Description:
By secondary structure, this protein is an alpha/beta fold. The protein has one domain: Rossmann fold, CATH 3.40.50. The chain has 6 helices and 5 strands. Helix 4 links the parallel strand 4 and strand 5. Helix 1 runs parallel beside helix 5 (114-126) and helix 5 (114-126) packs across helix 6. The radius of gyration is 14 Å and the shape is globular.
Amino acid sequence: MERVLILCGSKSDEEIAKKAIETLEQFGVAYKFEVASAHRQPDKVDLLVRETSADVIIAIAGLSAALPGVVASKTTKPVIGVPVNVKLEGLDALLSIMQMPPGVPVATVGIDNGKNAALLAIEILALKDQDLAKKIQEMRTKK
């Protein structure tokens, strides 16, 4: 059973997802990875969000970066948006994800920073998982 759902808006975003996946695997966190566009496959996005057993969702998208906001509109679970550098050095995607309307928040990490998205997801999970909390603390003290 996955604890984190990772959604990419496009196959071209998979390199960013790999950074998140590697980090989740290092911490032993179960995840599910899917590609689903908010614009081209809204029904698939809706189904994935409704049916996930995950506690946290990472949504990776560039350009208009609608995916994180669309996902957040369909759930009360924490959503972490990862803007992708496609155009305008990723600033278009960053601003799109950050500027959500009141009441529909999306946590946002830096452009192309799938690793930080995974670490934030792990920190959220660690609120109720002492083993993960210990692993995060150990990682930070090693640096």
